[in-house]
Amino acid sequence: MSLTHALLGFLGYQPMTGYDLKQRFDRSIYYFWNAKLSQIYPTLSKMKEEGWLTMEVEHQEDRPNRKVYSITAAGREELHRWLREPAAVAPIRDTFLIKIFFGGKLEKEEMLAQLRHHLALHQEQLAAYQETVRETIRQNVKATGQEREGFFWGLTLDRGIEYEDGWIEWCQEAIAKIETNFK
Amino acid sequence: MSLTHALLGFLGYQPMTGYDLKQRFDRSIYYFWNAKLSQIYPTLSKMKEEGWLTMEVEHQEDRPNRKVYSITAAGREELHRWLREPAAVAPIRDTFLIKIFFGGKLEKEEMLAQLRHHLALHQEQLAAYQETVRETIRQNVKATGQEREGFFWGLTLDRGIEYEDGWIEWCQEAIAKIETNFK
DNA sequence: AACCCCATGTAAGGCGTTACATGATTTC
DNA sequence: GAAATCATGTAACGCCTTACATGGGGTT
What we know:
Two copies of one chain form a homodimer. Chain A is mostly helical and 183 residues long. The first copy, chain A, folds into two domains: 2-84, Winged helix-like DNA-binding domain superfamily/Winged helix DNA-binding domain (Arc Repressor Mutant, subunit A, Orthogonal Bundle); 95-181. Chain A has seven helices and two strands. In chain A, strands 1-2 form a two-stranded antiparallel ribbon. In chain A, strand 1 and strand 2 (66-71) form a beta hairpin. The radius of gyration of chain A is 21 Å and the shape is elongated. The structure holds a DNA duplex (28 and 28 nucleotides).
């Protein structure tokens, strides 16, 4: 399970609650992995039973108590084992490509509308990466001094940017082809 | 549900059995969508109850009977409606990127092994697209005369190739960066 | 007054995979 | 003799999303 190992990864930096972990997801790896709180909480419980985490309750007066999880030696070993294990290529599973594949059923203008809409979405995503995500990484490296880690965070971001760039170019080419040679 | 609409799409070309449909998936769109027979069969049943398909049993002597499904007018309308509906961007969900993100925990050589392995997988995938898939499309257009359809099949393949190319370049750059400036 | 933040969960349902079940014919 | 092809399914399980449940404190 990948969620388990992503949680181990973040807890390798420092002890945290499920709520904190959700925020880490939302602010860093959200563009290639995410989970809802309703999945994170039970997963943390199971990981504790597995012996990969320990938990301590931090009592608070005007807010709900915090359950702070820490990674154990067994947890670090499991993370390291998983990180070295060869990874399979992730399947694409993109419904948009199904729509393109059967695009012969659409009128020229209907198809162009789909493509233009998708182009806009990817352009937005790209802008978010270049502004928000890059800046988040910079601040994190500055605040924690994790330079080696920051290098790898940057690599995943580079891949995200290349991915969006690829989509944008493909959309633009597809639009051009349909506009000029079609119908 | 996207499986439903992919099935409608293929049945829009001609009536088929679940078994035939599985082969269509495996030979054309497998690189961005697929399904097992154990999911296809019950889905076809539901689609029939929904009124999008009709079914006729073709009796065979030495083999199991074939259940041939045909798309109805309602099915075609549903397909068309779905094709026009704006598509959201597919989430990436790539466990390999999680491994990269937490790559600071690995030794230089462990990380290079991961990257080289992944590079090889994407190179294989790319080769398959350029040989097998491109050829399958060519033959299909030739056999059925579906030139307009063939254009869109080609678009999805272009995207697949660009996707693999992107990964290959990224892997090569990542390997180079780690080999020269690291540890 | 309405909404967001903090902080924890449970329950139901959807989509997908893996395993189980059957069985004749053809190909290596 | 073993494996693949044809042809249909059911059952159990895993991962994930959505909805439900609680409730005080701060912000607009």
